[in-house]
């Protein structure tokens, strides 16, 4: 099968026997040069890689235009990291590292005397966009621990750009700057994406990533579209609004944050 997105393309084949899969892929690679020459296109063989999903075995190399294609343990397709084990952790680590790198470069801007509104716009444009890239497709498959690691990156960024002290709670900072959590942002983005796909003119995008029936006794991670279930949305809202601290602790944290944000009080 063939998957296309922008200037990225991927061929993939499945079979119970490895030799059948390799033969199918090699047959496609043998026909590819003729098609490329017909449409006056070129492919960089040096950037072409192969990925075998499953157990580690000795695999003969595939060839394209007489050059061997390197086998790797992970590939990056359309900005997403795909591991040979098909786990979400490598993609989550990739997104976290991209956000860390952007925050390190922009740290002088985030700690400057620019207006808070401007620094928030910088964070949303250059840091959060890297952290949440393609998240509606894979965030629902993350474990709770991985989701907490992703949320930590936003908490650190908000603490840096506001200059809040160590005793100010993360939820208080987010509330005062009026910024939703990563999970709420992903749910909102996913709802817009699926609604646009379901009501668009492209029929092949209708009901993309559908909900699959599961046995009632099976406990598993949510599928991408399950982020939009009404019950799950209500649970997330109740969890977001519930506070583990007392009312006095919240007031104290708000005062500490305002003292850091208001230069006149320093």
UniProtKB/TrEMBL annotation:
Residues 237-266 are annotated as: Disordered. The lineage of its organism: Eukaryota, Metazoa, Ecdysozoa, Arthropoda, Hexapoda. This is RNA-directed DNA polymerase from mobile element jockey. It comes from the Eukaryota.
């Amino acid at each position: 099968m063939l998957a296309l997105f922008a200037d990225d393309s991927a061929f993939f084949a499945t079979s119970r026997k490895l030799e059948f899969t390799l033969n199918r892929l090699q047959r496609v690679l043998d026909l590819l040069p003729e098609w490329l020459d017909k449409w006056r296109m070129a492919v960089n063989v040096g950037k072409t890689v192969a990925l075998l999903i499953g157990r580690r075995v000795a695999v003969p190399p595939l060839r394209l235009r007489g050059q061997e294609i390197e086998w790797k343990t992970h590939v990056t397709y359309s900005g997403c990291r795909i591991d040979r084990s098909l786990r979400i952790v490598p993609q989550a680590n990739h997104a976290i590292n991209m956000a860390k790198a952007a925050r390190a470069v922009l740290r002088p801007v985030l700690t400057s005397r620019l207006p808070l509104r401007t620094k928030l716009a910088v964070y949303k444009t250059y840091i959060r966009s890297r952290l949440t890239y393609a998240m509606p497709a894979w965030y629902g498959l993350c474990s709770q621990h991985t989701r907490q690691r992703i949320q930590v990156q936003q908490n650190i960024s908000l603490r840096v750009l506001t200059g809040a002290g160590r005793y100010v709670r993360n939820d208080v900072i987010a509330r005062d700057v009026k910024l939703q959590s990563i999970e709420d942002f992903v749910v909102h983005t996913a709802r817009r994406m699926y609604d646009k796909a379901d009501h668009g003119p492209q029929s092949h995008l209708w009901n993309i990533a559908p909900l699959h029936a599961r046995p009632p006794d099976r406990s598993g991670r949510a599928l991408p579209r399950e982020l939009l279930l009404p019950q799950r949305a209500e649970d997330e809202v109740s969890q977001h609004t519930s506070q583990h601290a007392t009312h006095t602790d919240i007031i104290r944290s708000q005062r500490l944050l305002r003292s850091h944000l208001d230069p006149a009080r320093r």
